[in-house]
């Protein structure tokens, strides 16, 4: 009998495992279990195109016919409540049990909810799934003032859309710069300049301490005693990996489900991928929240399950964020940079930052520079590229690629 694959979580990564298994020629039963309703969909547009136009029809990752054609048993609206490892079964919330030979955990992450007084008031929103986005979009139709707690990618993408719609937006960010966990200071500054020019009131070094209001949100109190008036509050302060299923089943967890270089948990039958996985990258324990990681992890696991020999996972991370007219594209991870070289466009605005560690190029952040981003991805996936060499080529990444 063929091996049975069960996938928990029907988001970007889970869907890709199912699709890649069939592409790799896997003929056994594949069951894809997801707790959300409807077809598996992509999240990035929720804070971008969907927030602008509300068009749900472009979100589905695959049409309904795909599951029948590919012979994938897709079951939406199902919560996996437990993993019975001795029996080799997952336990569903309706008590049903499904046996597996390989289990893939692709449970994603959920939003952090800081314990602020007033956080449960009507008018306080978060943005993770389609249902959140639909609620937020509907409410944003009628408000004049919005406060966004958290100046990371999702908060800023929403701020750009809302400000363009004429809403007065205040972004409350505890750090001294925007997107500080993920980008270098010159990129933070470029986006700060953009948002302020677009009319967004960005407060840096500002800590939200409470949501104000009686029956509904009316604003946010800050630690310095100031108050920000708002009819809508978006919480966008980061996420927490969904790792409880794994922990309760006795698998190793630490800021995500701990996996090895082939994305296997401490139980060799069980893999974890995407936002919920803590995996080694270049020897460093890493957890990424990106489409790239979810998709590349999924492909790697599908190849492992089908028995294809392959080296440990080492795909180059890349990411994007659209904020107003600015498209930020990041190749590599700039964590741990010790030097940067900044390039500017014809107007003098920062459009690229090359980040280095020990003189080696580790990441390239590009704004509206798609060609340079693609060159950077190819370059960073190859042999080490050093500061001196790029300087000698006048920082031309395409020339470095050709050389
Ligand atoms: C608004 C927004 C904008 C984004 N923009 C970008 C972007 O521009 N670029 C980028 O690279 N990334 C972006 N991301 C991140 C990207 O969408 C995620 O990194 C990606 O979806 C991760 O895929 P995943 O499969 O790990 O998790 P998900 O796609 O989140 O899927 C996990 C699924 O598992 C389900 N699940 C969890 N537990 C269970 C259970 N016990 N039983 C059944 N189902 C369960 C969840 O409900 C969810 O449906 C964005 C995310 C959001 C929310």
TrEMBL record:
Q: Which UniProt keywords apply?
A: Dioxygenase, FAD, Flavoprotein, Oxidoreductase
An example Gene Ontology CC term for this record:
cytoplasm
Single Gene Ontology MF annotation: oxidoreductase activity, acting on NAD(P)H
Name one matching Pfam family: Pyr_redox_2
The chain positions of domain Reductase C-terminal read 318-399
The protein's matches in InterPro entries, at most eight in alphabetical order, are given as: FAD-oxidoreductase/Apoptosis, FAD/NAD-bd_sf, FAD/NAD-binding_dom, FAD/NAD-linked_Rdtase_dimer_sf, Reductase_C
Q: What Gene3D superfamilies does this protein map onto?
A: 3.30.390.30, FAD/NAD(P)-binding domain
On whether Oxidoreductase is a keyword of this UniProt record, the answer is: yes
List, separated by semicolons, the cofactors it needs: FAD
The UniProt record lists the FAD/NAD(P)-binding domain at 4-298
Q: What's this protein's name?
A: 3-phenylpropionate/trans-cinnamate dioxygenase ferredoxin reductase subunit
